[in-house]
Every structure is written in C-alpha cells, then in structure tokens.
C-alpha cells in the first residue's frame, strides 16, 4: 500500500463524516500538504498519501491513472470504505479516475487546478534538472539550489522540488523515481479513455492566474461529472494551496460541509 499519513482531530470526530483523502500532484508528497491537513483535521480524520514513485511510497514500474486510482481505492478501503477526496494536478486526475471507476468510495470530490484532458506541456525539463545534480558530492541545500539554478530560473519551482531531496541519506537521494516519471510522462500529462460518470458533488477549484482549466474543458467535465461546480481563487496560480492557503482551506471546508 502507498504510504498514508493519518491526522486525527484533537476532539472526538463526527463519525457521520468520512475521512478526507488528500492527493498531491507530480513531484509532490503528503508533507507538502501538512498544514492544510492539520487545519482540516479539526473535526474529521485526514488521510494524506505519498503517491507511487513519490515520497516514502513504493517504487512501481508504471504511473498510469488507473494504477494510481487503484492505489487510492486501497487506501480508502483500509480506512472505512468511503471518503471525501481532494486531488491537486496529477492527484486531481487520479481522483477523477477513482471516482469514475469506484464511485461508491467517494462522497464528495474537489479537483484542484486540473481538467480531465491531455496537456501539451511536459515536465521532463524538471526531471532533467533534478537528474543533473551531482548527488555524490552534494553537501547542502544551498549547493543543490545553485546547481538547479543552472537549469531552472524560478526560485519557487526549485524550492518545491527540493522538498523531495533527502540530504540525510548517504549519499543524498531524490524521494522520486525519476526514471519512471520520465518514461511515463506521456501518461501523466495525458488522461485515459474513460466511461461512465460520477454523480456525486464535485468542485473544480482553479487558480485565477492559472490556465490549466479552460472554459473549453467544461463540456467534457460536465459529461463525466454532471454535478460539477466551478470556482476560482483570486491571486492564485497552479499551486493555489501554496499561493492562497487560507482561502483554499476556507473554500474546501465550505464545499465539503455543504
């Protein structure tokens, strides 16, 4: 099973409310969502996962959405059999495939800044940048940032990637299966052929400064998720939970408790 972090509420949880499952995006991990998980765990259990080939989860030879959805189904089956699900980016696509293939496991779903479509922008340049690090001689995070800066100009992107760099390991290592993520990139930026629909309440929450979910995507979204609603966070980009954490949390809380 993929690694799962359980955040328990400080008070006795309302057992009528299923746990919230948080599913991170490409190159992320459960720890990226620690603050959101802790705040959402005031009244309910929160499950945060490391997806396959990420964080402390097992390395597997594939990164397909049916496989990722099956991983999530296993987590939900082991934690009560039903959950609210929030997935960001790659995690949002995995959550959508889960809801379409195992709808009985999902009560409500929030899809953060992604659509059920294929994208043209590959993330292989980020894989190449991470592979360029000389891990054998790496001694500090600052040194890693300097090396990454030769390939990636954006400080925020470098800081995000370095959250998956384990400097305590000897030698340092990436907590990412970069070879598989590179070989499966077409699947990751794509979206599988799917059938059926999910009739549960679904919120497509996007960053107002992001172009990942476009008006042209809405007919496809509505065909798969007929109860889909749409909202945008002002001032937020693709990493909307990092750009506007309080607003993201408030929107998530309002939708899930409606």
Q: Can you list the strand order of the major beta sheet?
A: 1-3-2-4-5-8-9
Quick one: CATH class of the largest domain?
Alpha Beta
Count of helical stretches: 11
Which series of helices and strands comes N to C? EEHEHEHEHHHEEHHEHEHH
Based on the coordinates given, report the CATH architecture of the largest domain: 3-Layer(aba) Sandwich
Number of domains: 2
General shape: globular
- Overall number of strands: 9
Radius of gyration: 18 Å
CATH topology of the largest domain: Rossmann fold
Q: Report the structural category.
A: alpha/beta
Helix content: 25-40%
pLDDT average, as an integer?
95
> How far is the first residue's CA from the last residue's CA?
31 Å
Low-confidence stretches are: none
Strand content bin: 15-25%
Sheet of most strands: 7 strands, mixed
- CATH homolog superfamily of the largest domain: Alpha/Beta hydrolase fold, catalytic domain
């Amino acid at each position: 099973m993929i690694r799962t972090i359980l955040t328990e509420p400080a008070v006795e949880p309302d057992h009528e409310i299923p746990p919230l499952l948080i599913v991170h995006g490409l190159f992320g991990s459960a720890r990226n969502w620690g603050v959101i998980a802790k705040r959402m765990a005031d009244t309910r259990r929160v499950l945060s996962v490391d997806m396959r080939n990420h964080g402390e989860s097992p390395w597997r030879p594939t990164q397909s959405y049916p496989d990722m959805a099956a991983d999530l189904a296993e987590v939900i089956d082991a934690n009560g059999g039903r959950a609210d699900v929030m997935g960001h980016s790659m995690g949002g696509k995995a959550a959508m495939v889960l809801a379409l293939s195992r709808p009985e496991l999902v009560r409500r779903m929030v899809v953060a800044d992604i659509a059920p479509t294929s994208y043209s922008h590959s993330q292989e340049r980020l894989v190449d940048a991470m592979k360029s690090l000389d891990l054998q001689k790496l001694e500090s995070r600052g040194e890693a940032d300097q090396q990454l800066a030769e390939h990636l100009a954006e400080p925020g992107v470098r800081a995000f990637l370095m959250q998956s760099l384990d400097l305590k390991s000897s030698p340092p290592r990436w907590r990412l299966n970069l070879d598989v993520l590179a070989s499966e990139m077409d699947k990751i930026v794509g979206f599988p052929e799917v059938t059926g629909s999910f009739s549960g309440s679904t919120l497509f929450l996007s960053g107002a400064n992001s172009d990942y979910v476009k008006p042209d995507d809405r007919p496809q979204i509505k065909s798969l998720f007929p109860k889909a609603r749409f909202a945008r966070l002002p001032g937020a980009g693709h990493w909307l939970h990092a750009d506007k954490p309080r607003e993201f949390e408030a929107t998530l809380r309002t939708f899930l408790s409606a």
